[in-house]
Amino acid sequence: MGQSEPVSGYHISRQPTRPLLLTQWLPFMKSHTEYLSFTIPTRMGFLNITPTVEAIVAKTGIREGLLLCNAMHITASVFINDDESGLHEDYKKWLEQLAPFDASPQRYAHNRTGEDNADAHMKRQIMGREVVVAITNGKLDFGPWEQIFYGEFDGRRAKRVLVKVIGE
Amino acid sequence: MGQSEPVSGYHISRQPTRPLLLTQWLPFMKSHTEYLSFTIPTRMGFLNITPTVEAIVAKTGIREGLLLCNAMHITASVFINDDESGLHEDYKKWLEQLAPFDASPQRYAHNRTGEDNADAHMKRQIMGREVVVAITNGKLDFGPWEQIFYGEFDGRRAKRVLVKVIGE
Amino acid sequence: MGQSEPVSGYHISRQPTRPLLLTQWLPFMKSHTEYLSFTIPTRMGFLNITPTVEAIVAKTGIREGLLLCNAMHITASVFINDDESGLHEDYKKWLEQLAPFDASPQRYAHNRTGEDNADAHMKRQIMGREVVVAITNGKLDFGPWEQIFYGEFDGRRAKRVLVKVIGE
To answer: What is the pLDDT of residues A19-71, one digit of tens each?
Structure first.
């Protein structure tokens, strides 16, 4: 969980679903939980995690339901937007204008604690903690350009993302 | 789906729920999915979609559960706030200050792609992609002033909204 | 519901779950709904409601599912971040910069209605209306620092928060 990994890699901690016997043929509610881990090598960065989330959905066998995907850390986000590098540069610049990095405790009282990441807590509020996505016919029910991103605002260390699917 | 429609109209694409037989008398999980389509005639605008969402909830027969309502496009929002025209004007002015429209690629790298809507991707992050609403006793479990809005930041073309209800 | 209470107190309105008979031994979907009420004595303030939400989860007996926690008022938020007083001061200062309080109708058209809280509707959009949290093994499935806050932007009166749990 805590091991450092490159931006393009991730670590999956599986929580096995309980074995389904006869009940798997009835529309009982099923659930499935996984934990992903990412280490973004820069302070701020965005990683497209859609293929990983799609693979989890396929594995669960859930046809109709809801998927929750959230950052488990409070200086990171999970959000849905476009996979376009120019837009990502724009987001970084824009977030830096709205909540500039400043390690000094003069601007941010939070940094009196010895932390330097008050700005990251604000950037995360703009970009959001979580997304909830419909599962329809066994797939993420997405519009044409929707992609799920992990958004990092205080990187260079491993952080976790939770994926939970409930449905039938 | 792709046809142009007025701001006050919408197009519903129904996905039929599977027929429920004996199982409808037991608290099995049910789900229901619908796709709405809206064409806002201006670049930015807000449309109260609460009556449409309420009608979907009533039709499903689901008494207890959760409803997801999300924009399927990444320059649009679904959010909950007040149906007051002055406030909507304030939101437009405020969002324009936080993320001004600028078609040039000098301000926004995204607009080097030939797009002119980088600002709309930012406005959408402020206002959010989705809402999750409790269904209690067969109805949207809302406080006194809560209303669901479709928020458009790059309009004048048809865009879709997904409504998914799960529950029993 | 409408009675005034101190920031450290809250009022719970219980909606009893239906009695579960034989079906409680099968993985049928269960749901549980509660309404909390808070009166923050200042215009803006944040209250850690995690212990209250944890107690609700424990009471439901739901092992695997999703929890929705949302403000039922449109000038308040429910969000997840750090329980650090310096950060909370930073949030207040930052939100005041992004959407300053101004009772006059010159800055905000909404205040022509006689209201003075247009800024609170904006602050709420930044901080969000709701959180959706995974329930795993009967508990809120949280990262190390995640805490749920009620965020008030137009306080000094009682407002409600909805907690809904679905799962099995």
So the answer is: 555 555 566 789 999 999 999 999 999 999 999 999 999 999 999 999 999 99
Give the separation between CA B27 and CA B135, rounded to whole angstroms.
15
Q: What residue ranges in chain C does DSSP mark as E strands?
A: 11-15, 30-39, 45-48, 65-71, 76-81, 130-136, 139-140, 147-152, 158-167
Q: Report DSSP state, residue A73.
A: S
Pairwise CA distance, residues A127 & A59, whole Å: 28
Amino acid (1-letter code) at residue B106: Q
Q: Which domains, from first to last, does chain C contain? A: 28-167 (2.60.120.460)
Compare CB distances from B74 to A26, A132, A145 and report the shortest one's residue: A145
Concatenating the DSSP letter of every residue in A116-151 gives --HHHHHHHHHH-SEEEEEEETTEE---TT-EEEEE
**Structural contact between residues C166 and B141, judged by C-beta atoms closer than 8 angstroms:** no
- In chain A, DSSP assigns E strands to 11-15, 30-39, 45-48, 65-71, 76-81, 130-136, 139-140, 147-152, 158-167
Does the beta-carbon distance from A167 to B166 stay under 8 Å?
yes
Residue in this structure with the two tokens 């991730």, named with its chain if needed: A10
Chain B residues in contact with chain A using a Cβ-Cβ cutoff of 8 Å: 15, 23, 28-31, 33, 66, 68, 70-74, 98-99, 108-113, 118, 121-122, 124-126, 128-130, 132, 160, 162, 164, 166
CA distances from B110 to A90, B14, B76 (A): 7, 35, 17
- Helices of type H across C16-144: 50-60, 85-98, 118-127
Tens of pLDDT, residues B112-137: 999 999 999 999 999 999 999 999 99
Q: For residue C16, give every residue at least 6 positions away whose Cβ sits within 8 Å of its Cβ, in sequence order, or none.
A: none
Please judge whether C113 and B84 are an interchain contact, meaning their C-beta atoms are less than 8 angstroms apart. Answer: yes
Which residues in chain B have Cβ-Cβ distances shorter than 8 Å to C132?
132
Report the predicted TM-score, pTM, of the whole model to 2 decimal places. Answer: 0.89
- Identity of the residue in A110, A111, A132 whose CB atom sits nearest the CB atom of C132: A132
For C3, counting Cβ atoms within 10 Å of its Cβ (0-12 exposed, 13-18 middle, 19+ buried), the class is: exposed
Q: Do B66 and C166 touch (CB under 8 A)?
A: yes
Residues 6+ apart with CB under 8 A from C146: A72, A74, C80, C81
Asked if residues C161 and C58 have their Cβ atoms less than 8 Å apart, the reply is no
**Residues with Cβ within 8 Å of residue A51, at least 6 apart in sequence:** none
Contact A54, A148 (CB under 8 A): no
How distant is the alpha carbon of residue A80 from its chain centre?
9
How many contacts (CB atoms, under 8 Å) link B and C?
Answer: 104
Residue (of A136, A154, A68) closest to C64 by Cα position: A68
